[in-house]
Amino acid sequence: MTAAVARVRAAMRAVAAADRPEIWISRLPEADVLADAAAVDARVAAGVDLPLAGLVAAVKDNIAVRGIRTTAGCPGYGEVAAEDAPVVARLRAAGAVVLGTTNLDQFATGLVGTRSPHGAVRDARRPGRISGGSSSGSAVAVALGLVDLALGTDTAGSGRVPAAFQGIVAIKPTPGVVPTDGVVPACRSWDCVSIFARDLPTAELAMGVLAGGARPWPADTVLAAPPAPRVAVARNLPGLSAEWEAAFADVVERLRADGTQVVPIDLDPFLDAARLLYDGALVAERYAAVGAFVDAHPDAVDPAVAGIIRAAGTVPASRYVADTARLAELRMQAIGSLDGIDALLVPTAPEHPTIAEVAADPVVVNSRLGTYTNFCNLLDLCAVAVPAGTAGDAQFGVTVMGRAFADALVADVARRVAVPADPPPQAATGLPAPRASTPPWPVTAGASAVSLVVVGAHRRGQPLAPDLERRGARWAGLVRTAPAYRMVALDTVPPKPGLLRAPGGAQIVGERWLLTPAALGAVLAELPAPMMLGPVELEDGTWSVGFGCDPSAAAGGRDVTAAGDWLVVLAEAARTRSPTG
Question: Which residue segment(s) compose the domain that 552 sits in?
Fold first, then answer.
């Protein structure tokens, strides 16, 4: 049995063993899924590079999957999709195999996972608690190990909240970088497609496939967090119990211990923006999306969902204009408070309620859950939600947010605080180790990046490395040049080597960095003499941009080619200077 087919069969057995029918709305025929898996195996055997080869996926039921009725959790709504939404097509093109579509809060209206005619989706480990929503089925399918990854949507926290409750990872990208064609809109201006996985590398790998071709990446996209990022933490955290406050404080201390600079800020403009989404006029977009259907089919819609959508239809245009203007003001205040800040850290949710608590007060409890998520898309932020520990018997998660297009930076900060997901109660066996996400997923998704080879003072830990790091450059590993170079020690401060192509040369150890063309231009503008930018041949025969040296200046340098590595030269010099006993 070939790899993808074996993995899909294992996933099907896990789905049956889990016996959680409320997770799913529609399943593709088993024969079709196995045929898709066999096709993946055939492509791999033919030498096609498939980054997601054989990974098993689920799709939230408000995203079109060919051959399945897209209902958004409302059986009378929608029609059978003639083709996949672009995000589903991209997953399949990269080698993922789709099992079916998952349950959700109807019309993606809710953060609880209980507003569905298909039943409340229960927490993966504590069946009395909610799963979180609206992407409830997708999150629980990943948490139980039934699938490797799942698509969700996230307008106000519908990806991040269930990820936190289920102890898994969710990436909510910069709004607009992932296409939303083929997605039933909730609030079209603020909708995002998100990805769930049990670990960050798998989520990043998938996001690199999903994104691109929608909102373009700017020339100055940041590709990495600095070594000591500045992370904002709110002075005011409303709604958290003492236990949850303690869990969040533990995460902040982990950041400090890791060298992160923690900066207290006032979260009020963020929270004020959050209230505009459902307490203000911006919710009118929900009526624009599905209001006509709700009015025509009152018995088909969950009462809480219907109440929200019908109320959205009564918003006067004047209030919508006023709230849009107010949002612009709050966006300026909130983003302004992040000046000099790399990322913002918040608890993903203030509590993890039970199903009974939601049933007793569905609107109020749901509203509280969006305290730290509702503002994100309104303020044009990207976010990564990760498991960060426990609070009592509940999973505790945090979200790292950043400005638009800081997706790679935010993922790096999230890596510092994330804890591994708990082993799933039910799991498809034989899952492969995820690949490392190098280059970062925005580069895979189309952000411009240049490979820069450095051999001396710009290497990690060396005096000029900050010139690269403060411009968002990403270290991408060690390299060796072709055996065609000389290295000379120049008489400069700080000490630097000069790299020159020369007959009879040797291999020189260096490092590869990734940075945007804009960042490379800025580095070049400050490049100290006698360094020069030029092509460097690597040991595999490929060429990269790299730092060389003016030959006339190199003529007076000391030849250190035999060392083969500038760090070796520095170590030998240090030994020579050290006193002997």
Answer: 449-577
